[in-house]
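Dear all,

This email documents one entry for the complex benchmark we are building for the journal club exercise. For each entry we list the sequence lines for every component of the assembly. Then comes the predicted three-dimensional structure of the complex as a token string, followed by one or two observations. Please use this as the template for your own entries, and keep the labels exactly as they appear.
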Amino acid sequence: MSTQERKRRERELRERLFVREAQEFIRREGLLHLQMSRLAEACDYATGTLYQHFASKEDLLLAIATEDLKRRATAFQPIPHLPLSSRERMLAVVLTDIDFISSHPDHFQLLQYVSTEVIWASASPDRRKALAEAGAPICEAVSQVVTTAVATGDLSGIPTLRPVEIAAGSWCLNVGMHSLAHAHGLLEAYAVRDPYALLLQHSQALLNGLGWQPLIDIRDTRNIAEQAQRIRALLRDNMQPVVSERPD
Amino acid sequence: MSTQERKRRERELRERLFVREAQEFIRREGLLHLQMSRLAEACDYATGTLYQHFASKEDLLLAIATEDLKRRATAFQPIPHLPLSSRERMLAVVLTDIDFISSHPDHFQLLQYVSTEVIWASASPDRRKALAEAGAPICEAVSQVVTTAVATGDLSGIPTLRPVEIAAGSWCLNVGMHSLAHAHGLLEAYAVRDPYALLLQHSQALLNGLGWQPLIDIRDTRNIAEQAQRIRALLRDNMQPVVSERPD
DNA sequence: AACGCAACTTGAATCTGGTTCATTATCCGG
DNA sequence: CCGGATAATGAACCAGATTCAAGTTGCGTT
């Protein structure tokens, strides 16, 4: 059994190598210039070997996005347990998302690209499933925040909606603003400034609209900014130290 | 002069032919299977001629998306003048968007694809500009709705925000929900039902949160649905009859 | 220690499809 | 009707993803 096991491990290790190296390529030269043959070469393997792991280039891209997303997801896990009001936790979700994406521009670009129906459709079902699952912890963390809020009475639940569905609004606001912020030239064309401050303000408005206690004054931008800073500080302290993976 | 003028017209006509035929291709076989040479052939032109019009395939895709977007934009123009309360007008925007995208799935897919930084970056600046401009009327219409709302006192403006920026929240909610709704399998994976009813509910919550009068009860789903139906009916009556473009 | 088999690796060849460009055709003003 | 400018043509080109026939490797067996 042990040889089989060892092989599996080696295989997994190599897959990581490919993914890691591909991320490096993308960071250096952009998604556009990632080439299967060059990637294989850079890892000291033949092109064909790459295809042992990934059925197609799209598959590889999903795999990379999945890896990123897993890392992103871990950032959300401590949130439900942070010493914050339920509403602040919800904002912590928004802030975590903003900060992660701001500091990983490649991740957003890639995720955006693979989420495209064109690319999505040409990846294998397994990879698609893996990507969807990598996002699940975020979904769960957020749902938990909502559930707790309802339990503590900060939010009076909406009978027809599940926790996820209540959280979905906030999530969509995020996704939409990221898209806007990344659409090169759109902000300028439409004279929108500082998208993430705006996102924060609208998130607060939405929470108010859902009746999520304590309501705050959305005109008080100073207060909003200060609260965000407080929450960010706490998030930094609670950050999982990024598990630096052992070099092989 | 007239011959030069005629040539320009012919050129424009042909460009339309290409775009139209490409849309047809996409509708029939999907974005994935659009091929430059086959498209040219289908229009009875040589491949090279296609490249007289579009510097690259990406350019062509932007052109198609732009054409669609223009049509989409016209649907928003009557909204600021509809006999509705300002808040209902804002909902009319949301509904128009939902309905247009629901009935033009290809449009969303294409727009999503070309908005991707990868594709966007490899199109020519002119095409990018044209696409951005095609969306401007929507932006203006929505801004106007906000401006009117502030003028009539339905919405007490937010000193630090421009009308566009106030509208941006609602817009992002839309964009985000469309993304979610189109991400094959995500809704199921995260157990979210009926995304567009949800979008409506969250839009109402956001408007409430912005203090947009008259506030409504977001728990009253029946009322929300009925109001949406009323607005939709009005929108249908005011629909610009789609200008059926003369066949050449 | 040698053998045979299965599984894996290799990278040159294949294939697809976007893009180019030398050639040819068209059009226009004189 | 001529000469040159302008545009159309489509076969050739090229990049790069994907394949696959040939060669290796490593394991268990004799």
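Observations: Chain B has two domains: 1-53, 66-238. Residues 3, 35-38, 47-48, 51, 56-57 of chain B lie near DNA strand C (CB under 10 Å from a C1').
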